[in-house]
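Following up on my earlier thread - several people asked me to post the actual chain instead of describing it. Fair enough. Here it is, all 152 residues.
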Amino acid sequence: MKTKDEIRDQRLWQKYGISLEEYNQMLDAQGGACAICRKLPKVGGKALHVEHDHKVSQTKVNFLKEGNFWHAAAEYNHLGFLAVGRSKSEASKTIRSMLKKAAVRGLTCWRCNQALQSFRDDPQLMRAAAAYLERFQHTSAVPPAPTSGENQ
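Reply from S.P.:
Thanks for posting it. Predicted structure:
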């Protein structure tokens, strides 16, 4: 039977292309806190989420067979990725793991992760939302009710 850490390590690898050790290194580099709001997770609460670029799954992979080997090539986030395998499937699995790992941006709490998803990972949309909130930061969106001495 696998330990809790072994199960977590396998899940992280399958979903994000990172190991539990790499997750823990990222967590240490972030001081144990969410990469956005800087809050620490509650003791005994949920671990921070692996925040990643969901668009990586749309990355086009090109294949070429040379002799007994398949070559897979892709470009993501202005970086080139190459993988080689004895089968097309092997080359595809390898390059997909590489791309998943490259898409990992950091660790976030549930709220910050949901916020990024709600704004579809679009910085321009997030800036527009911030500007909207800032317009009302020092004013009330609803005019105050008139006091008894004012014209009614």
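Residues 4-135 form one domain. That should answer part of your original question.
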